[in-house]
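Checked the freezer inventory, then went back to the computational side. Two predictions to log before the end of the day. The first one is the construct we discussed on Monday; recording sequence and C-alpha cells without edits.
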Amino acid sequence: MAFLAPPTALFGFAVVMARKIVKRGPKDYRRAELTDDGLKVRIDLDDYTKAPGEFGVFDPVAERYTGVGEITLIDHDQKFVERLIHPAGSGPAALGPVVDWTPDVFFEPSAVSGRFEEVRIPTAYGEAPAWLFEGRNADTWVIHIHGSWTDRTIMFRDVHAFSPLGFTSLVPSFRSDLEVSPPQAEASHLGQTEWRDVDSAVGYAVAHGAQRIILSGWSMGGTIALLTAELSPYRDRIVGLVLVGPVTSWRKAIAAGAAAACVPAVGAGLVMSLLQAPPFARMIGLEEPINFNALEWVDNPNRVAVPTLVLHSSADQEVPWEISAAFQRANPDTVTLIPLPEAHHTQEWNASPDTFTNELTSWISKTILN
C-alpha cells in the first residue's frame, strides 16, 4: 500500500520526480509501419495513439513528419491502432521502424501561413529565434508561449486558431529550448526564469508597433503568461490572456502527479522541498531554487488582474481540470473557464479544432475587441 511506503522509498521517489519535472527526458518512441499501400499508419496502441482527432508522427531516420487522422482499426489483442494518413496521399514511401507521436499537425510555419518570417529577439543572453506571422491587424499582437520540454513548433495550432482574428502572431523560443545557441539552461525553471525571455518578445512586439498584446500560453506557458502579465514593464499593453491546460499552481500539479503515482502527499511535499533547496537545485542544474509561492495563483485569490480565458479538457490527467476550476474560483472577476471535449494534456485543439477556435475567437471578440 502507498501509505506504508518506507521513508527511503519516498525520498527516492521525490528525487526521481523532481528531476523529471525540471529535466528533459528521452523521446518516447513507438513502433510504426505503413499499411494499405501507404494510405495508413499502424502504430503501437496506447491512450495517446487511440485518441480521436488529428495528430502527427515524426520518423527520426527519415527526419520527416507525417500527419494522421481518422482511426480505422484498434486491435487490443495485438496492441496496435491503424489511422489514415492525413491528408490522403501525403504519406512517405517508407516509415519507421519507430516514430515519435506528436500533437503538431502543421510541422512547418509555411503550413500555417505564407506570411511569416524568422526573426531574432534580443534577450539577456543573446538573440533568441522566433517566428513572426504577419496579420491584417498590426496593432494587436499575440505572443504564443509553449510549455516545458516542447518547442515553438507545438504552437502552430494556436497560431492557426487565432488566424480568423487577423492579429499579428509572434512565436518565441526561450532559454531552456534546445534550439537556443549556445545552450542557456540545463533545466526548466517552471516559468520562473523563462518569463524574462517572453518579456523580451513582448518588448520586440512593442518596438515593432504593437499597441495591444495578448499572451497565449499552454501548460507551463500559462505560468509564463501569468508572470509576464504581472511583472513586465510593458504590462499596460497586455490586454488579455488565453491559457490552455495551464499550470496555475505548481504545488497542486505536483501533488496531482504524486497522487496519480499512488504516492502519499508527503512524497509531493518532499519533491517541492528538494526543488526549493539551493544545494539540490544547483545539483540538478537549476540556476536558482524554485519559489512555489511566486508560482501560485489558486491559493492567492484575486491575483489575476487581466481578462483571462482558460480552455481545458476535463479529461486532462497531467494538469487536472480541478486546478483550473479552483483558479477560476480564486479569480472570479477576471477568469473565464470553458470546458472542452475530452482530450489529453494540451491536445484540446487536436480533439476538436473547430470547437477550440470558435470558443477562443468568440471570447476575444466579446472581451477584448468590444
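The second is the one RB wanted added to the comparison set:
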Amino acid sequence: MPYLVECLASVEAQTIDPERIEVIAVDDGSTDGTGECLQEFADRVSMPVTVIRQDNSGGPSGPRNVGLSKAAGRYVFFLDADDRLGPEALERMVDMADRNGTDVVLGRVEGINRKPPQSMWGKTLERTDVFSSNIKFTLSAQKLFRRELLERHGMRFDESLWTGEDALFTMEAYLRADGVSVIADHTCYYLVGRDDGKHVTKSGGYTLRFDSARALMNLIADMVPPGERRDSLMHRPFVVTLLPQFGPKYLKDSQKVRRHKFELAKPLLEQFWTEGVARRLKVDERLRLHLVAEGQPELLLPVVEFVKAKKQAAALLEKRGHHVYLAYPHFRDASAGIPDSVYLATPREARAFPGYREHTPTSVLRRAVRKARRVLKAPAAA
C-alpha cells in the first residue's frame, strides 16, 4: 500500500475479457491493510480472484510458488504489487504467444523513478531465443510464461535465494522454451520506484549477490555445453551480478570484506571465467575480473579508483589501426605482468576512437589474397 491500489487498477483496466483472467493474490504477511484491499477487490470485480493470506516468507519466491501452484490458466504472469500493467498488456502478450506458439513473451518495460534494462527493446520479435537477442539482460519474472512449459519441467522459484531468484527462473524458461517473443513497440509493464527505496532487489548483503551469481552460473553450465553459446550467457552474471562487487563500492569495503569478496569470487572465476567470456567485456570490466581471477587485490584498487573517477583511458592504436589498446592502470607495467590482451578493446568499444580500422570479412579476404600473391611471386628455392 498504496502502490497496490494502482497495481490492481491496472489489472481491472485490462482489455482482455475479464472471464479469461484469473487473479491469484498472495498476501505474504503484510501489516498495512493489503489483505483487506485485496479482499475488497475480489468482492467487487467480475474476474475470478483468489486471495491467499499467509505468514511472511521473507522473499518473493515463496508467494510466487504458492500462486503458481494454484494457477489454472494457459499462461501465467507475475505482477509485483508495487508495479502495474500497461494498457492492453495482457491482450497483446497472449495474442503474441498464440500467434507464434512461443512459450515466453517479453512486453516492453518502462520505469517510473527506476531505470529498467533497455537493450532488448530495439525491435519487436515474433520469435527469437536467448542466444540471438539481448533478452538475457532482462531476467526479472515479469514475463508471460506458458504454464504447460513450467509444469512439464517442474519449474519453481528457488526459495533458498534471497535475491536473483527470478533470474534463475527466467533463464531456465528461456533455455527450455520453444521460442520467445518480444513486444518492443508497446509498453506492457511499468516498473515503479518506491519512495522508500525498499525493493527486494536492493536489499541484503553482498554475500547474497555471490549466491545469486553462483546459482545462475551453475544453471547455465548445467544446461549449455562449453563453448561460444555458454560464454555468451555467462557474460550476463559476470557483468551484472559479480562485477559490481568490484566497482566503486569496493573502495568503501573494509579489508576483511575485500578479502571475503576475493574468496567468494575465486571458485566462480576458476570454474567459469574463460577467454570467450573475457573477450566480450569492455576493457575496464575485463581488467577488474582478470585481477580478481589472479588474486591481486593490491593491483585492483588503482583500477577501481580510476573507474570511479570516470577517467578516459588513453587509446593506443597499433597494427595500422586494427588494434586499440586502452591504457588503464598497469598497462605494460612489467612489474604487474598483465598481458596486453587484457587491454585490447573490443570492436564495439574501439569504434569510438578515430583511426580505428575494423577487421571485416572483406578486409580479411583482401589480406589473404595479398599473401597468396606474395607467395606466388616469391622466387623458387634453388
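For RB: The beta strands are 23-28, 49-54, 75-77, 84-85, 104-112, 125-128, 144-146, 180-192, 315-318, 323-326. The longest helix spans residues 206-223. Let me know if you want it refolded.
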